[in-house]
Design a protein that fits this description.
The protein has 621 residues and is of the alpha/beta class. 34% of the residues lie in helices and 17% in strands. The strands form three sheets. Strands 3-4-5-7-9-10-11-12-15-14-13-16-17-18-19 form a 15-stranded mixed sheet. The longest helix has 30 residues. The radius of gyration is 30 Å and the shape is flat.
């Protein structure tokens, strides 16, 4: 039966695609017929996909819910646990995903047999339910989580009142199983949580992670004196807000591998901030095993006045995250004696103006991470920014080969699933930077990254013309990026299009000074395959590009610069195999001109991209 069904579908497909095959095998077929054939083939493919969906619906109808496999049921329960948590409401508790376990006996038995399903007790339901969770999950480790920010308008407010007794009950009942405490709540809950944790420190032998964060602008929390005496010897990771006064830093173990300090949105007094920074710095002095350090200096000042002359010895440090004011972040970098082992860096700097950013001071550490001895090079680079408003923004992210999936760039609708190893952000909050400053920012950051192993480049910067960024700059900075296969272009991209069609042989090296107007006009067309920018380019994606725009330097429309690049590269097989357009702008007459200018053999992309449309769509409008 299976063989006959297969043969029948194949015969049906051949019959439907007969006219398409004739055009495909006829080398004399005009371009209009080829375009129509592509449309017909795509329609058949869509019809086949719709047929498969109908068949799958029929197949699934043979599997009623009471006959689903336990593996599928467990996955459903786990998803529901994350999406529909139980909570107390005005008219009683809403059990959320717990109701799913009562659909039938099979579902109930499957839920009870999966111990990991019950290892996150819902503290807001009260001690009775917490005990049920603990018994059903035994002997699995317990993860105590609570996020009051998830409350709905129907919440009764009783959930927060039940958190402390629930926490105390579970800690007294099974302290040796508590592995993680993760709370995001107001100070009124955070303080009791800390008291419970340190009061039972000797019995919490399996506790490895404590994460406490509070809502913004709740002020500072003064911990009571002489409350804590025992240390959390098993702790390896801790996350705390910066406005926590009187915290017992000395009771934290020297074996910590991760320390994160978050901004609470509250500006401490000078004596208070000194107290917090001194306690934190002394903890770091004895944390030789630390692998991750994340500090937020949005509200904290520089700690140069508390740092010792010997500095910090953190030989195992691999990840450094700094956010906030430049002076505070730079004081951390200066206090660490060696950063040779650092392979992941995240920096987010905010300042009122260009001088407050101190961009040049961060370049050495960026270069250190980019040129580290790590055998996993950067293969994906993304740059984004805006130089057109009263606030300047620029960011740069770089993924290593192990963090990068080609599927993300083969299908532009997907997004990167991993955090980049290098993430740099600079923002001004009050004054825009000048043309020379913006150009210097781009030059400094792009020059600090090794691009020789890049395979994917994403650019979405608005206002490049405002800072004098030219095609020559693109060529100078990415001439060595011979392995780029995927290029995603957005926003202001005229100069990049012009660079794609220009020779890389006669450009000047990068300079911090602005390029004279008309410099791009003197660039010659590509005359040799070895002179192409990105010679291995396979896919080009354009998003939010105004092809109607005219560059004020060379006075030609962007769509002509694009066509110039494709025409020049065609001779050397340097054109992309696929071109994707999204949210782009092109006039109807320009679409017709472009379609007649670009040879048919170059149109190896979706036919929709050359359809003249006057309304917003996935193609041009």
């Amino acid at each position: 039966m299976e063989h006959r069904a297969r043969q029948a579908w194949i015969a049906h497909a051949h019959a439907r695609l007969g006219p398409v095959d004739k055009i495909a095998h006829n080398r004399a077929s005009p371009s209009s017929d080829i375009l129509s054939a592509r449309e017909a083939a795509k329609a058949e493919l869509d019809a086949a996909a719709a047929s498969m969906a109908v068949i799958r619906v029929s197949l699934n109808s043979l599997e009623p819910a009471c006959r689903l496999s336990p593996d599928v049921l467990i996955q459903i329960f786990l998803w529901a646990r994350d999406l529909d948590a139980p909570e107390n409401q005005r008219y009683g508790p809403r059990y959320g995903w717990l109701a799913l376990s009562q659909v039938c006996n099979l579902w109930r038995n499957t839920a009870l047999e999966c111990r990991s399903l019950w290892n996150e007790p819902v503290l807001s339901l009260g001690p009775e339910w917490v005990e049920v969770f603990a018994l059903r999950s035994s002997p699995a480790p317990l993860f105590l989580k609570c996020d009051t920010r998830m409350k709905t308008r129907y919440s009764s407010g009783m959930d927060t009142k039940r958190v402390r007794p629930s926490l105390e009950h579970i800690v007294q009942m099974a302290p040796q199983r508590v592995a993680k405490v993760d709370f995001a709540a107001p100070w009124t809950i955070i303080e009791p949580v800390l008291s419970v944790v340190f009061a039972h420190a000797t019995s919490l032998a399996a506790l490895t992670s404590v994460s406490l964060q509070t809502d913004k602008n709740y002020g500072a929390l003064q911990m009571p004196d002489n409350t804590f005496s025992a240390s959390l010897s098993s702790l390896t990771a801790i996350t705390l807000p910066d406005a926590l006064l009187g915290f017992p830093w000395t009771l934290l173990p020297s074996t910590l591998k991760s320390i994160t300090i978050l901004s609470s949105g509250h500006s401490l007094k000078a004596t208070e901030s000194r107290q917090v920074l001194t306690g934190l710095y002394r903890l770091l002095r004895r944390s030789a095993d630390l692998a991750l350090l994340s500090l937020d200096f949005e509200d904290l000042p520089s700690w140069s006045h508390v740092a010792g002359k010997k500095g910090l010895d953190l030989p195992q440090l691999r990840t450094l995250r700094l956010n906030g004011q430049a002076e505070g972040c730079l004081s951390v970098i200066a206090s660490i004696n060696t950063l040779r082992g650092l392979n992941k860096l995240e920096i987010g700097i905010k300042g009122t103006n260009w001088e407050a950013l101190h961009v040049a001071s961060f370049i050495p550490i960026i270069q250190s991470v980019s040129n580290s001895a790590d055998a996993d090079p950067f293969s994906r680079l993304s740059i984004a920014g805006d130089f057109t408003t009263y606030q300047t923004h620029f960011s740069m992210d770089a993924h290593r080969t192990s963090e990068y999936s080609h599927l993300v760039d083969m299908e532009p609708t997907q997004t990167a699933q991993t955090d980049p190893s290098l993430s740099i952000k600079f923002d001004t909050t009050e004054m825009p930077i000048s043309e020379a400053e913006g150009r210097q920012l781009m030059l400094n950051l792009l020059s600090s990254v090794d691009t020789t192993r890049l395979e994917s480049l994403h650019t979405a910067v608005r206002g490049l013309a405002n800072i004098g960024w030219t095609a020559s700059d693109w060529i100078n900075h990415f001439r060595a990026a011979q392995g780029v296969q995927y290029l995603h272009v957005g926003r202001d991209c005229f100069s990049l299009f012009y660079a794609l069609g220009s020779s890389t042989a006669n450009t000047t090296p990068p300079s911090g000074e602005a390029v004279e107007k008309g410099a791009d006009d003197a660039l010659e067309l590509v005359m040799d395959a070895s002179e192409m920018l990105f010679p291995k380019l396979r896919a080009l994606s354009c998003e939010d590009v105004d092809f109607k725009g005219i560059d004020h330097k060379v006075r030609i429309p962007a769509h002509q610069a694009f066509t110039r690049a494709l025409t020049a590269r065609m001779v050397f097989s340097g054109i992309p195999r696929k071109i994707t357009m999204r949210k782009c702008k092109l006039l109807s007459e320009q679409v017709k001109w472009w379609a007649t200018t670009v040879p048919a053999r170059m149109r190896d992309w979706d036919a929709d991209t050359l359809s003249a449309r006057e309304t917003y769509s996935n193609g041009f409008y």
